[in-house]
Design brief:
The structure holds two protein chains of two kinds.
Chain A: E1 2-6, E2 10-11, E3 33-34, H1 37-53, E4 56-63, H2 68-77, E5 81-86, H3 94-108, E6 114-118, H4 129-137, E7 141-145, E8 147-151, E9 154-161, E10 164-171, E11 174-178, H5 190-196, E12 201-205, E13 213-219, E14 229-230, H6 234-247
Helix pairs in contact in A: 2-5, 3-4
Chain B: E1 2-5, E2 8-9, E3 12-13, H1 16-25, E4 31-36, H2 43-49, E5 54-59, H3 68-82, E6 86-90, H4 93-106, E7 110-121, E8 124-131, E9 136-143, E10 147-151, E11 166-171, E12 183-188, E13 201-205, H5 215-225, E14 228-231, H6 233-237, E15 258-262, H7 268-274, E16 279-283, E17 297-299, H8 303-319
Parallel strand pairs in B: 1-4, 1-6, 4-5, 5-11, 6-10, 7-10, 13-14, 13-15, 15-16, 16-17
Antiparallel strand pairs in B: 2-3, 7-8, 8-9
Helix pairs in contact in B: 3-4, 5-8
Classes of the chains: A alpha/beta, B alpha/beta.
The structure holds flavin-adenine dinucleotide and adenosine monophosphate.
């Protein structure tokens, strides 16, 4: 099976968001970078399918310098090659980003049986790149899935809705967008990390259309510290907790 | 005029759609709904209650259940006939994908997770939308003759304006390709996920639980309080608990009376899922943990020694 996974590099936010002075971006000077759980699950699913059916896993990412770190990390768990679509930022208009990813996949020419994405990006939650890509490539698409099996050229996928699961079938070749919880992504092994160094990254220039959504500014919603009341420790704290729970009416 | 795509399951409207209709009514008096599929005519009475006067009901003998692309075709058909200024939907899995299909087919921009919308000109709008699970707000200008947007859950109250809605039935123009992906079956969920989103009390554990064993104590406490067990992503990715229990940006969003966080540091992505809790109690060995700034009550202690005492005292208080 030829499988493609679209991954994106995100800042590791920690416990507070700091903006640049002009309020137009997150100040990432002191931050590390990571993938989103949705996309980690997508790569894990791709690697599991490769182990079961053979084939290769190709990563595609649109972003600036630095994204190699996330690519090598996913090489270490089993992805084989990557296409890096170079752009000045990952914070791209979703319409333009989907088109650029589509260009790169088409130009690559590999007949992918399955293209996986996250259901929504961790930073922007545009929730549309996968569907736009599917239309662009003329393929069926299923979105926001938490379960997937492939047999006889068909993907059977499940979507969690409340306490139920909806089941859809999608004939391959197809696009599927996945959610955290689809599987438990493995940790990279030492041999995996060593192999990852030699796997190929092909760099292509990103050709981005003019944005239709223009940023005016960002704000971090002020959440005043609630000034937590210290209930002490040990038995004293356990008594105080019981009192609080009685007070707010959850224990009677 | 604004069109709202109404997400329903076999005639049961997702209540978020009433918030979407109400959001649309703050911008335009004429809000019309599109519902698709068998049983959808049932939706008209309820929508009438929220100020919708026209419900466009699309059917086709080949649309037996929810079919994303066919739903998009139905909305497109109504859009072509009525040229609305905007098309909205709830940010549910269905609302999101139907609008994404419309956006892709018409090559239009789509803004998601909107908490405020202003129509500033014939083809411009300004929106406020949530990023990073609501930890960051974006203000943006969108250029499009038809504004496509999904509305953030609970950003707008559902406001009633009782009246009768007229049903306009129409045939959805579908091709074979539009019918390829649709619901083929439904299955029950794992019991473990049941109730977390609605629970009045959530007893949640993080890395500080040190393994799956200590969760037995959280189950016990949840049982005494009639609540549900939750956890952080560190816990699900270690396989200690099922993903259905994960609280946060990529897990479940909860809004209980009481959220108890045991050994959870309070990363922004976890807070995204529990910030709507009325009261938050944090139990953590680290008084400087970020969770403390979100807590109403703090216990700086080892959860492994605190929990047995707490369970015993809570059980005694309940019996008393
Ligand atoms: C895009 C993205 C999405 C994410 N989505 C989610 C999500 O949906 N939900 C989620 O939870 N995370 C999510 N994460 C992960 C998140 O960033 C954090 O890594 C995670 O929430 C940390 O979990 P934790 O608090 O259990 O662990 P840690 O951050 O390691 O914290 C453990 C805490 O336990 C305390 N502790 C240790 N021992 C004890 C003890 N004996 N008694 C009391 N306290 C003790 C420590 O002081 C510490 O504060 C996401 C990350 C990304 C990048
Ligand atoms: N710059 C990018 N590079 C690679 N993949 C991306 C990029 N932006 C979005 N994606 C993919 O599209 C998914 C959904 O993103 P979005 O439509 O922005 O919510 C993400 O989870 C990624 O899998």
């Amino acid at each position: 099976m030829e499988i493609c996974v679209c991954i994106k590099r995100y800042p590791s936010l920690g416990s507070a968001i700091v903006l640049t002075e002009d309020g137009m971006a997150i100040d990432t000077d002191k931050l590390g970078f990571t993938l989103s759980p949705h996309e980690e699950c997508a790569v894990e699913a791709a690697v599991q399918l490769k182990e079961e059916h053979g084939g290769t896993v190709t990563l595609v990412t649109l972003g600036p310098e630095g994204v190699e770190e996330q690519i090598r990390e996913q090489f270490a768990i089993g992805a084989d090659r990557a296409i890096w679509v170079r752009s000045e930022t990952t914070d791209v208009d979703p319409q333009a980003a989907a088109a650029a990813l589509g260009d790169a996949i088409e130009a690559d020419g590999t007949a992918f049986d399955l293209i996986l994405l996250g259901s929504e990006s961790a930073d922007n939650a545009n929730a549309q790149t996968g569907v736009r890509l599917a239309h662009r490539l003329g393929r069926p698409v299923a979105t926001a899935v938490k379960g997937m099996t492939i047999a006889d050229g068909t993907a059977t996928v499940e979507r969690a809705v409340g306490t139920m699961r909806e089941v859809y079938t999608v004939p391959l070749p197809a696009v599927v967008t996945v959610k955290d919880g689809l599987n438990i992504p493995r940790y990279p092994s030492v041999p995996g990390r060593i192999k990852a160094r030699k796997k190929p990254i092909e760099e292509v220039a990103g050709n981005l259309a003019d944005p239709r959504i223009e940023l005016i500014g960002l704000t971090v919603p002020v959440r005043e510290s609630k000034g937590a009341q210290d209930l002490g420790a040990g038995d004293e704290a356990a008594d105080a907790l019981v009192d609080v729970m009685k007070q707010i009416g959850v224990l009677s | 005029m604004i069109i709202v795509y109404v997400d329903h399951d076999r005639g049961e409207i997702d209540p978020l759609s009433f918030q979407v209709v109400s959001a649309a009514r703050t911008l335009d008096d004429d809000v019309q709904a599109v519902v698709v599929g068998p049983n959808a005519e049932k939706c008209a009475d309820e929508l009438g209650n929220f100020g919708v006067r026209t419900v466009h009901h699309g059917t086709h003998d080949r649309i037996a259940d929810y079919t994303p692309l066919a739903s998009a075709r139905a909305v497109l058909d109504v859009m072509d006939r009525l040229t609305p200024r905007a098309v909205f939907a709830a940010g549910t899995p269905r609302g999101s994908e139907v609008l994404a299909h419309i956006a892709a087919i018409r090559d239009l921009p789509l803004v998601t997770e909107c908490s405020a919308i202003e129509l500033t000109g014939p083809d411009t709008a300004e929106v406020t939308r949530a990023r990073w699970g609501g930890n960051l707000l974006e203000r943006s200008k969108v250029s499009a003759q038809v504004l496509l947007a999904t509305i953030q859950a609970h950003a707008f109250a559902a406001t009633e304006d009782p009246g009768a809605a007229q049903i306009e039935a129409f045939d959805v123009p579908v091709t074979d390709a539009d019918l390829v992906v649709g619901i083929v079956d439904r299955t029950g969920a794992q019991a473990s996920g049941v109730g977390l989103a609605e629970a009045k009390v959530v007893v949640s554990g993080g890395r500080g639980m040190d393994g799956p064993e200590a969760f037995a104590m959280l189950e016990e406490l949840a049982d005494i309080l009639g609540g549900a067990v939750g956890c952080s992503r560190v816990v699900t990715s270690a396989g200690w608990r099922p993903h259905a229990e994960q609280v946060g940006q990529t897990g479940t969003k909860v809004a209980p009376e009481l959220y108890l966080a045991f050994g959870i540091s309070g990363a922004t992505q976890h807070i995204a899922g529990c910030k709507s809790a009325k009261t938050l109690i944090a139990v953590n060995t680290d008084a400087q943990a970020p969770i403390m700034t979100h807590a109403d009550y703090a216990v700086v202690d080892n959860l492994h020694t605190l929990l047995p005492a707490l369970i015993e005292k809570a059980r005694a208080a309940k019996g008393a």
